[in-house]
Write a structure and sequence with these properties.
The protein is α/β, with parallel strands linked by helices and 487 residues long. The chain has 14 helices and 17 strands.
Amino acid sequence: MNATHESTRPVYVLGAGFSKAIQAVMPVTDELGMELKRRLADVEELDLREGQTFEDWLTVQITPLPFLARHSNARRAASAERVIAEIAHALDERVAEATANECPTWLWQLLAIWHAEKAVILTFNYDTLLERALNTHPLATYAFGKAFQRAFGDHLVYPAPSAPQPQLLGDTGSPHNANSLQILKLHGSLAWYWASGDPTGSTLVREREKHIFGSSEPFADEADYSGAKSLDRYLVPPVLSKDGYYGSYLANSLWRLAQKFVAGTKSLTLIGYSLPAGDRVTSELVGEYGGSSPVYVVDRSPSEGLLERINRLGLPAEAASSGPDCVPAYVKGRMEAAAESLSSAIDDATAGSQVFDVVVSFANGWRTAYQTDLFALAWDKERQIFSTREIDRTQVDDPRSSYREIALNVLPTGVHDLEDFVTVERLRELVRNEGQFRFEHERIAHPFVAIGCSLMERGSGLALLIQWAPALDSTSATSFGPAESVR
């Protein structure tokens, strides 16, 4: 094992159980097999024997059997290919159903945690639920000394096939964003297309995901000017032996990067993924983990078999959360831990630096009511909570004023005193007394909680940039329609 890689970003491995936690309509593998059997009842016969899994059946179908004539094996393989092609259509419908309602609050919180720690997400799921959640609640990213950028789902999935040029205003045609979480889709995506059987993957192309939770309408035109959707989906099928599907340049790139991240990380967590005994490739990948902490497992029922399979790789394993609500419960624990550790995070971020103010950023997304990405934090006397106050971007580069003075100058006279704004010392005191720091966005009636911080520099000096997530006891995200959500 080589644990000397440059990347130490935490790594999460997602399986079908993660998507099912987002919405129960998302199928695990055997449920998908039953759905395909129903959909293709008049076309193909999925004759699963009692006790046989869909993965077992599909593996046997595509495997040439030596006792059968060549034409019989070809007919079996063609039948399997028809079933594989139907997977994309079945999941398209499930994704549309799963995202008809608002994004679960726990998923919004988890994305915020991953964003704060710049996590690497290895997913075997074809669906685009993560992309749609990130479109619903896009992230504001900041590189030291640079401007803010909006990060939508399409920006955070890479490496990925190239996409057609944007055609309309509002299309997410900007490049991938390296200042946040990173998603590696190891088995392909519903948004990826290719000329099936292309040995090198040179025909791979992707469409941009233009949907959000809570709406059936895309936020930009979906006309297929490139003809990409006339091709087949690029999906590695659910078979026990996937070796023959890893030949494209993209598959090689994805898996090599995955190995680098797993070998270099200090934290590896499996969420809704059972590490099937027959999946030799992924087992070897997990075996590359070089961290000292256990491999954490978040699963409805983390069986001894799963923990033993990890142990046989020479790694300690620990169930981090279990039960029917294991994923939301895991996120709740992470949120509590992040809020409680804020005081030490402030000390680490500000060590040796003179920081003048505390600020927070929100991504300026689709149909938002605010026109800036940066906000000072001030005490709202009427609502008795700290609230954001817009910082005029035209004044940010003025070296004569602090961030809070700029915010104060744009408010009506008498609304706030300079002392109302949050300084680092005041933030330390608040966290010490309350155990966490809560605030609201001035145009969104929704409480947020600080889960981390970093230094930020923009023209007028240093500031402490608060990383945030929806508060644990906040109302459900269903209270906020698409036009009111933070995007």
